[in-house]
């Protein structure tokens, strides 16, 4: 790490210029060797994780996918989606080499000079499908999150070849394609419990019509207890498939009290699966999208690579007819998926606040 040097971290415009406009991100801040966290990243006490609320004697399910059609495995998947909204899968068929390669590519991209990463920022990117940024939604946040990211929305092989950063393009595509089979297996199993026995073209679009991959980088933080890597939120996806490195730091909301949290321990070669808001809405609340968050780390840089499997932006989402066939009342209205996503991004992370947007008023 670079020696500690003076930096006007109390000056909002200087910090914005350095972190956002110049493309240094929080990685650049971290590498200045700051002894104290800039005030812009200090979260309200209520948004920081309370170590007394971490539940150490519980963990999310770990499911072996090697015999995924076995009824007991299918039940484990659906039970986990209903109770926890989160589970880890092992023996999922995505080669370890593919996982290692995309982690290496993530480090390679974030290791590029700031000016090279900045080519993909909001002001300079050749496409809305490729976005390098920091925090979550800086223009809407009172306190910033200690994270940089590269977000890649998949349009076509041709666009990815032309516009995605060469430092990580091939490895991200390989990870995305390598995960397709297990994603389809998971959705097939989850749909069966909802009385959807066949995923036709319309259902396929609703469940997995679009895909976004993020590369997340959480640099070493001088005062991790005062900030967050990612604030508490649920995803807007159908499913999220997350590759995390060996550092740890992902926490899922537990069942013991309003503010209990459970760590998701890294398991070499595993993938973390979580239900997104779209699947909660499509299942009329049977499957749960659960709040989760990431803490910052005082000594190690952390990366993660989530694949967000989503409806298409132009799809209307609401409870599936098969779910309502037995007379169950809909909890959610039909909403345009792109409107739902815009609602998510126009505010700071706020737990499960987004899903209220789709609820039918009682």
From TrEMBL:
It holds the Pfam family DIOX_N. Keywords: Dioxygenase, Iron, Metal-binding, Oxidoreductase. One of its GO terms (molecular function) is metal ion binding. The keyword ATP-binding does not apply. Residues 209-311 form the Fe2OG dioxygenase domain. InterPro entries: DIOX_N, IPNS-like_FE2OG_OXY, IPNS-like_sf, Oxoglu/Fe-dep_dioxygenase_dom, Plant_2OG-oxidoreductases. Its cofactor is L-ascorbate. GO terms for biological process: coumarin biosynthetic process. Coiled coil: none annotated. PROSITE patterns: FE2OG_OXY (PS51471). Belongs to the iron/ascorbate-dependent oxidoreductase family. This is Fe2OG dioxygenase domain-containing protein. The lineage of its organism: Eukaryota, Viridiplantae, Streptophyta, Embryophyta, Tracheophyta.
């Amino acid at each position: 790490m670079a020696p500690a040097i003076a930096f006007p971290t109390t000056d909002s415009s200087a910090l914005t210029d350095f972190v956002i406009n110049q493309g240094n991100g929080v990685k650049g801040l971290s590498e200045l060797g700051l002894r104290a966290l800039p005030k812009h990243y200090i979260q309200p006490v209520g948004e920081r994780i309370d170590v007394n609320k971490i539940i150490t004697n519980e963990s999310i399910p770990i499911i072996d996918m090697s015999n995924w059609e076995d009824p007991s495995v299918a039940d484990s998947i659906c039970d986990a989606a209903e109770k926890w909204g989160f589970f880890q899968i092992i023996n999922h068929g995505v080669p370890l080499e593919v996982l290692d390669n995309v982690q290496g590519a993530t480090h390679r991209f974030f290791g590029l000079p700031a000016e090279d990463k900045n080519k993909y920022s909001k002001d300079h990117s050749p496409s809305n499908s490729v976005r390098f940024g920091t925090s979550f939604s800086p223009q809407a946040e009172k306190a910033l999150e200690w994270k940089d990211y590269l977000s890649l929305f998949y349009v076509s092989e041709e666009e990815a070849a032309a516009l995605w950063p060469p430092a990580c393009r091939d490895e991200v595509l390989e990870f995305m394609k390598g995960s397709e089979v297990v994603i389809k297996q998971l959705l097939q199993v989850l749909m069966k419990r909802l009385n959807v026995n066949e995923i036709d073209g319309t259902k396929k679009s609703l469940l997995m019509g679009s895909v976004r991959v993020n590369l997340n980088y959480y640099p070493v933080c001088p005062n991790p207890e005062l900030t967050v890597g990612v604030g508490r939120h649920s995803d807007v996806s159908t499913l999220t498939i997350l590759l995390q490195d060996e550092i740890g730091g992902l926490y899922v909301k537990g069942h013991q009290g309003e503010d209990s949290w459970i760590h998701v321990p890294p398991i070499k070669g595993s993938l973390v699966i979580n239900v997104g808001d779209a699947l909660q809405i499509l299942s009329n609340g049977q499957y749960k999208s659960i709040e989760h968050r990431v803490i910052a780390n005082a000594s190690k840089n952390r990366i993660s690579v989530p694949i967000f499997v989503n409806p298409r932006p132009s799809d209307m989402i609401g409870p599936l007819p098969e779910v309502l066939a037995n007379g169950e009342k809909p909890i959610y209205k039909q909403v345009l998926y792109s409107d739902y996503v815009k609602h998510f991004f126009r505010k700071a992370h706020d737990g499960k606040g987004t899903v209220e947007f789709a609820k039918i008023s009682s």
